[in-house]
Specification:
glycosyltransferase; seven-stranded mixed β-sheet; transmembrane helix; Spore Coat Polysaccharide Biosynthesis Protein SpsA, Chain A; about 240 residues; globular; alpha/beta; 8 helices
């Protein structure tokens, strides 16, 4: 069984698929037992065909396909449910996350405490446009003030978390943006780890500042409600 399952959701990323798969293999092969689980969210280009062609070259690669487009959070959850590793590393499919940071997150986990179930990437030197960086900074400030999750960057796609802890979280669309707060709500600790960030290699972003903001308002209210309504207690077996 693999130690690590690398889950990558993709939608219309055909030109980024092979370079990213090659980088994942270069970062992990010979260092960790791993698998790569790509989830194609019903791409309209030939991303799925590219992935199927790579399977003969990369034995660690598994490919899942949504029969209808369902969004990034659902694609991540699909990959995690199918994963065989006890720990999951996630990457965005656009190539902006650096797979070379996965061993760094694993090392942080190995040196960390058992109560930490999520190691979240922190893009300290973002390579996005100025407007996107400003919007992200503003959104992070509001989120941090409302949820008090002590996380500087929840939007970074590269994360390492325990599979069982993730699957125990409440599922909803866009939940991948709130994993630190949700993990903390469940009673676990989270750690932010500085990681590399790169310009998009090819293709176009699937989000813009406006649709992020409109969706984010409803999501923030929902997550805040979940936190307020949560109850936790220790359990003794007698």
């Amino acid at each position: 069984m693999p130690q690590i399952s690398v889950v990558v959701p993709v939608f219309n990323e055909r030109d980024n698929v092979k370079p990213l798969v090659d980088e994942i293999v270069a970062a992990l092969r010979g260092r960790h037992d791993f698998e790569i689980v790509y989830v194609d969210d019903d791409s309209k280009d030939d991303s799925l065909a590219v992935l199927q062609g790579l399977k003969a070259q990369v034995p660690e690669l598994r490919v899942l396909h949504h029969v209808a487009q369902s969004g990034q959070s659902t694609a991540v959850r699909t990959g995690v449910k199918a994963a065989r590793g006890t720990w999951i590393a996630t990457l965005d499919g656009d190539g902006q996350n650096d797979p070379a940071d996965i061993p760094k997150l694993i090392a942080a986990r190995d040196a960390g405490e058992r109560e930490v179930k999520l190691y979240a990437g922190w893009r300290v030197n973002r390579k996005d446009t100025g407007s996107k960086r400003w919007a992200s900074k503003f959104a992070n400030a509001i989120r941090s003030r409302l949820l008090r999750d002590s996380t500087p960057d929840t939007g970074c796609g590269i994360k390492l978390f325990e599979r069982d802890a993730f699957l125990d979280l409440p599922y909803f669309d866009h939940m991948h943006r709130y994993l630190p707060a949700l993990m903390q709500r469940a009673g676990w600790r989270t750690v932010s780890v500085p990681v590399n960030h790169r310009p998009r290699g090819a293709g176009v972003s699937k989000y813009n500042n406006l649709n992020r903001a409109l969706v984010g308002i409803a999501d923030l209210r929902g997550v805040a409600w979940l936190i307020r309504r949560s109850r936790r207690t220790g359990v003794d077996e007698i």
